[in-house]
Fold this sequence. Notes:
Helix content: 40-55%
Structural class: alpha/beta
Strand order of the largest sheet: 2-3-1-4-5
Order of helices and strands: EHEHHEHHEHEH
Amino acid sequence: MKKIVIIGPESTGKSTLCSQLANYYETVWVPEFAREFLLANGMNYSYDDLLTIAKGQLTLEDNIARDLTNDLLIIDTDMYVMKVWCEFVFGKCHHWIIDQIAIRRYDLYLLCNIDLAWVKDELREYPDLENRQRLYYIYKDILINQPVSWIDVRGNYDDRLQTAIKGINLHIKSVPLE
């Protein structure tokens, strides 16, 4: 099984891209566990809640991967996102999250750029461009300094999808580019 992870700051089209890619490749995708957790428990989360969310994310990923009949899994969020979230909000990160980063294996990262308009919803915290840029560059720095291939996904929703498909075909599916 090949695993593709979509990461980036909030409101950069990650979930939309996951859904589009799952549809295109006729597979399933792992949604962001944090969304359901925060909708159920509210936005007044603690540092320890982020560990609960991280564990929930990986349990969800493992459960969906176990039942997958396709050879490709699309994942919205991984432990890099949890690390950034912990450090950005609380200035520290749980050792368990760091340990999971070291042992989990993925095949390709898609980094969603901040060039889409920010869309307000009840769970989003950073509408200002300065924080969005800071977060984007934190993610980019992480990806530059790790060994897995990654692609910067930018432009409108269709541009993002086409860039992602080309990247997946090149890096994962071994399908020649047209």
